[in-house]
Every structure is written in structure tokens, then in C-alpha cells.
Amino acid sequence: MHRSHGPCARFADVNPDVNLSGLTILNISCYLFVGIADPHALRDQLHAHASQLGLKGTVLIAEEGINLFLAGPAADVRAWVDALRADERFAPLAPKESWSDAVPFRKLLVKVKPEIIRMNHPTIRPDLSPRAPALPAATLKRWLDQGHDDDGRPVVTLDTRNGFEVDVGAFDGAIDWRITKFSEFPEAVKAHRAELEGKTVVSYCTGGIRCEKAALYLAEQNLGAPIYQLEGGILKYFEEVGSAHYHGDCFVFDERRAVDPELAPSPHNPALDRH
After folding, report:
1. Residue of 8, 205, 211, 250 marked catalytic
2. pLDDT at 10
3. What span is annotated as the signal peptide, if there is one (predicted)?
4. Which residues of 62-87 are buried (b: 16+ CB within 10 A; e: fewer)?
5. Pairing state between β 200-204 and 155-159
6. 211 carries an active-site annotation
7. What is the average pLDDT across 113-139?
């Protein structure tokens, strides 16, 4: 049974192999929290197919799910995704897409890990739990426009990314605890819970995977207010509402280093020169 997944942008019914700017390399990112009893067997299968197609990037597999970032010619990337989605466990996968003029990865890595995003908190298993409430991008924009949620509570955006990612771009006024790795998040919550109590908290990250786990952890803390994850993270927000209430770009873990609110490579962000 599918318990939780990243609601990424769906492939269109008809998918061109070149985007409107003439770029030919399709970059995809997606995750899915779903139980996987055979991660090593799946690893061998996925690595073989991606190698055959000449794709590059990283695929992480764990008993809790899959997290992937791949790039290559559009037809080859989509063929790999279609084959994966033929397995009913992964049918909900619907990658977010962006384009570039070159593959932003140097090699292909397909790895089995204890977690697809490391939190080191065994009680947080999105594949076994009801999904944390997800807030659509348009609703977050509306709440930030009006300065409160629909019940009149103040809204805070909580950045669950590493500090160097936040430096490249973030929501205006977001809470940033300067964590250096996601496994520090639970201790940061304990140290700063007073900042969240009594407010509507919207956790966010790049594509949704960290803020999904973060929202489940926050819900355990009895903060006395609603807890949400931003549906699809920053990348989905850019896709649906642009840069409203957001300053800068979005750091990505490949050779593009950052994308702008148009989801185009943005190599000139000053913060990138510091990292």
C-alpha cells in the first residue's frame, strides 16, 4: 500500500523531447515513501536499465521508499520512469521536470541506504504513517499575501534545508536554524520550539522529501497549532506561483548548483560563490 509520496508535477500527455528554449537534456527529481522489501534487488534492476539508457544522476533506495535525480535525453529519461512505474508500488511517481543544455551529473549512482533522507529518528516512517497535511503552493501564497491563515493565526515558514542552501534563496522571513545536515533537525526543534508554538507552521524544502519527514516530527511535538508541509517544496511553488514571497534561487545538488523561479539554471547567485 502506498502511504506517502512526493506530489511532483505530472508528465504531460504529450511530452516533447525539447523544451521551448531548445534545450534537450531533461532533468527529473522525485521521491516516494512506500515500503520496499527488496531494495538490493531493485537497486540492481534500476541500475542496469539506467546504464543501458546512458542516464546519469543518483537514485537512493531504502525500505521506506525511493528518491531520485536523473538526467539525459528526454525519451530515455521517460522510458526509464515508465518502466519503473509499471511496478504498481511506484505507479504514483510523477517527476518534476527542468531542462538544461548538458547533463549536470558526472556519473550514475544507484545506492541502497537505511533512509532515503537521513533523519536518524526511527519513529518517523512516512511509508507506515498517514501523510502529514500538505499545503498547496497557491494556498501558502494566499496566506502570506493576507498575513495569516484562514483561521486568523500567524503563519511561519520553516526552512528544513541546510544553512548554505538557505543562503541561495528562501521564503521572506523564513525560520532558519542554520542546520548543517537534516539529522540535526529534531534537536533544533527542541531548542527552538518556542518560535513555533501557537502558530501555523509550514515546513518546506527543495522538493518535499525533507519537509514531509519534518512535518511528521513536528506533529509529534504538541505545538498547539496546525503543521503543514509545502506540497512539492520550493520547486513546485516556483512552477505554480513563481517567486511570490520568495527571494533568490533554489539550490540543487547537481552541477547547475541553483535554479531560478523559472526553473532555469542560475549560476550567478552571489551566495554560490561562498560555498
Report:
1. 205
2. 37
3. none
4. bbbbbbbbbbbbbebbbbbbeebbee
5. parallel
6. no
7. 94
